[in-house]
Amino acid sequence: MRTQPITTVDPATLAGLHPYPLGEIADVRQDEPDFLLQGGVIRYGEKFAYSISLRPGLEYQFRGITAGTEFGATVVDADTGEVLWANAGGRQALGVPQAPATDLVQVAEERAVLLVVEGTSEADAPFAVSADASPIDTDEFSVYRFLNKGNGQHFITAWEFERDYVLANMPNMQYQGETFFAADIPLDGFVPVYRFANLINGSYFYTASEAERQSVQDHYSFMRFDGVGFYAPGGPSEESVPVYRLANLKTGGYLYTPLLAEKAYFLLSGAWRDDGFSFFAIDPAAVAALASEALHAAPYGAELPLLGVAAPEPLG
């Protein structure tokens, strides 16, 4: 799963932004995916953008470096307008004064974003923004389940930070613990499981079928596409177990379970329809071996692509 946006801006406001002629691009540790952008004086009201590409499996930490003056910096998806990170000046410009729950940015799929820098102080100021990235800890493969006590809908997530956010901020969500095992980064032989949010009844829908994903996007405008929820084994094997989908005939929601006993219990209530097989999950007995495999597959030496920046030769 990806970082939840701080807020959303109109993508049209990002059109036509150009990179500021940077004074320096420093990449002092070339074995790690990080960089430093350092520009000259940026004046009040000026706005520039740098295109960068974020990849799954990494956790990015952006920092705006100031010296007594303030400037705004935000990381924005140019297609959707979702703001994934903002420094203090950026939050002020957006009208979002409170700090986000985390300064870390994670994406479930490779994603092109804009790093937007703008002058927000009457005192003209130089700017510098750094980005550090480290592999996500992949020794945890749990998928967690919640029950919304208000509408009876179930919600599942493979991301610990999302689980912790729900636990801390949404008292109406009853925590039901681990429900099955999957990966939050792409692994060999795994396929994406996509997540949709039903904007009418508050339910969530998950599918590993590309055809089903496309059909939902084409025909159901009230289903918000949340992207990749997690990654699941692509087929049957000794290391996978099937996950079944049940549809609630009263609420319109869905339940996902690998347990035949739980499936039978809900079906016997008469309020659920058996939708059959949905996708595979990791067999609990295979989790330890996959955790070791994922650790060795982590992209430690990958450079963070920096696209479309007009600047002198990089230092370092």
Features:
five-stranded antiparallel sheet; 5 helices; 2 domains; Jelly Rolls; 316 residues; elongated; 42% strand; 15% helix; six-stranded antiparallel sheet; mainly beta; disordered C terminus
Describe the structure.
The protein is mainly β and 316 residues long. Mean pLDDT is 79; it is low at 298-316. It has two domains: 7-136, Jelly Rolls; 180-296, no CATH class. The strands form five sheets. A six-stranded antiparallel beta sheet has the order 1-7-6-9-4-20. Strands 2-3-10-5-8 form a five-stranded antiparallel beta sheet, with no helix packed on it. Helix content is 15%, strand content 42%.
The best one-word shape is elongated
How many H/I helical runs? 5
The average pLDDT is 79
Please outline the major beta sheet. Answer: 6 strands, antiparallel
Tell me the structural class: mainly beta
Low-confidence stretches: 298-316
